[in-house]
Amino acid sequence: MEPEKNMVDSIEKFDIKLKSQPKDGVILQLHHTIRQSNGESRRIRFVAAAFDAKCEKLACADSWGNLFILDFAELQFWKLTGVGACSAVQFISHLQDTLLVATCKNYDISFMDVETGTATRTLAGHTAPVKHISFSNEKICNLITASPIEAIIWDLRNYTKFFTLNTFKGAQIQQILFTPVGDYLVSCFQNDTIQIWKNESMKSVKQIVPNELKRMRSIAFTMNGRAMAMAGLASTLILFNMDTWKALKSIDLSKFNISGAQQIAFIALPFDGGCNKILAILSNDCSLYFLDLEALKIICTITPESSGIKRFTVSTTGKYFSCILQLGEVNIYNTSYVLEMAVNSNTKVEKPYCASTSVARVTAARDQITSKAEVEHNMRTCMDSLRLRRILMQYGEYPDRYRSIIWKSLLNTPRNKAAYAALVDMGVHQVFQEIEKQFTIHSTGTLNSLKRLLSCLAHWCPLFGVMKFLPGFTFPFVKVLQKDPMFLFECVASILINYCQLWFEYAPFPPISILAMIENVLADHDQQLLNHFCEVGVTSQVYALKILETAFSEVLSCSEWLILWDHILSNEPAFMLMAVVSYCIVQRNAIRKLKTLHDMEHFFHTQNPIDKKTFLKKTYNLLNDTSADIHPRKFFRKFSPLEKGDCYQQFTAYPVATITLRLARKDRSHSVVQKMSLRNLITKSQERIIEEGLLDEAVMRTDCNPTADAIQSCEVSPVRPMSPSSERPPSASTNGQVSVGPVYPAAVRSRSKNKIRCDSKHKRDSVKHLSRKNYRRASNDKNYALENEIKKLMPGSHLEANHSNTNT
Questions:
Q1: What's the pTM value of the predicted model, to 2 decimals?
Q2: Is the predicted pLDDT of residue 348 greater than 60, yes or no?
Q3: Which end of the chain is more exposed for a tag (fewer CB within 10 A), N or C?
């Protein structure tokens, strides 16, 4: 452990390094060794350990009362000075970074902040050291703490005793806990009896006395709470059905060389839907066995070389488990590494006898293809929406490794390769050709993926070439799914069709109906917060539209965003609108402190700390408790996936005439710009030809009659002078510059070749002394003179000029 100190509230934090796929599955080993005054080293034994609900932190307590917190998300650990020697530790499931510590001195229960190390509250009432701590999943305010001789249920709303259970000699408590699902309290006693109570009334519901099982020591529940396992020092394991109150099966552990069990616990795995199939058994010989209850075989056995295992702890999601050894160390395991190691060790690879290399490669390729096809078929068969939703409700999120596959199953994407290839072949859409000027994207691959996705959407439906929020909405999906471009397009298209219903009915203007639904739900559940928005002058376009247009990516971190979209895609389309209202209500304390519109806008464009579990729970409450009259479900249709075929279905849920007119105006303005630029080029060319012709004529006239009047410079205006309201550029000024009009030159100037330099200064000086009236008269005369010069360049102009001179 390399110490990189980081002072946070006077707590030193150090970096940790986890082993990547170790052979024995141990990713980290924790031991506490001190050096005594005589120079000898002494190892302090650990006695208790507990994971938090998110599997991000592990708390370990030693016999001296020191607490060590390991953060697997930040890869750091730190030491807390405890409240004395402790007998049990447990994280509070509904309070973040709060640890319960049961002390051995006064038998008190202390609430400790793991970030600061301060004890915030203490519960007193036990007369013996506490061994078991459990929380109710149905009622977050219920906590039970138990010693061998008594159990106390606490009401955490006012931190008082709710119920006290006293035992008698010979029937002391071996284990007591709340069931994971349901409202039952189950206790295992030394007299081989299991008692079940109702949580609310503490009324006895069932008493189980298994005849085959003697000297019972431990019980365990599956995550869905439907099955219970019972084991003891005898070599018998009993599985009990909690729905029918009947025994499912009895397993003889002696067949697996297990003489008895000190402790048991179910291992949660992905895609098991809470029906956990693997049971961890700590045997009497201090070894840990993983038993497959379906196949009835031992998957793997963990026997550390240094010493035996005293007790073990499994995280709620099954990602990690820890073992406290007899010598006092703590080994932390990654469950997936352990299972992969077991599979690899049990798999035997046989080399083909007298087979050529090519035949061996073909056989291996066939086996690989067959196995991959079987895996995909099995995953599609297993991943129905109901089963996936049970997994999501159990673990709170889908595993990162299978997220894209699960999203494919939830959205039922058609994988139309020909249709997608046709959209890609149309190239980059003209609207998104220079999108890098609007967004700062450092990765070229991400930029190209975003361009390709937006172009395909715009080619598929012209609407998506007009909506300005689309790049910001799709960008987080690009970051997550860019390795599979076709699924990326079909995923975003499915979301736009189903989860963005009624977004485009007033396009390109904001979705008034959607914002009204959100405001109605917020008014129904938190009128005070809505009143605060009105007082500050904040509309739903600030607190709702900005969140929707960025798909929550600006207000949530990457992990939070992925978890939220796991829940959005697993639920009905109205869930996303409820998530917007839930975010505002959960953040109400921070929002109510904001007093200006600018602060509000900044708040809804930045990431703010939020408890993911509270946020999602509030969203589900809004989804279930909102009245039917204002529920968005009333206005939405059911989910309909993209159709499979050679082309994608038409999307017409927008004002087609309005969008078509808008696109036509864009095309027309684009063509006008090109036409005007060509006209300017023609005009400049005409100017240059006329100016060269006038200069040549002036030189010829000067050579023939070099008088003072002939060598003076002259100016004329065009035949049709421009009005002040015209959009054409103004006429040329007296400094010799030439302004260009749309068709004809606005003004041109002809000067004598011999006197052009000396006359320019003389003319500037003379113009300064001219009055406004005289200047206009001089300009008219010069304009008339230049008209005559231009007419001379036209065919037949010499005859008209001679005739006019004769008349004059």
A1: 0.52
A2: no
A3: C
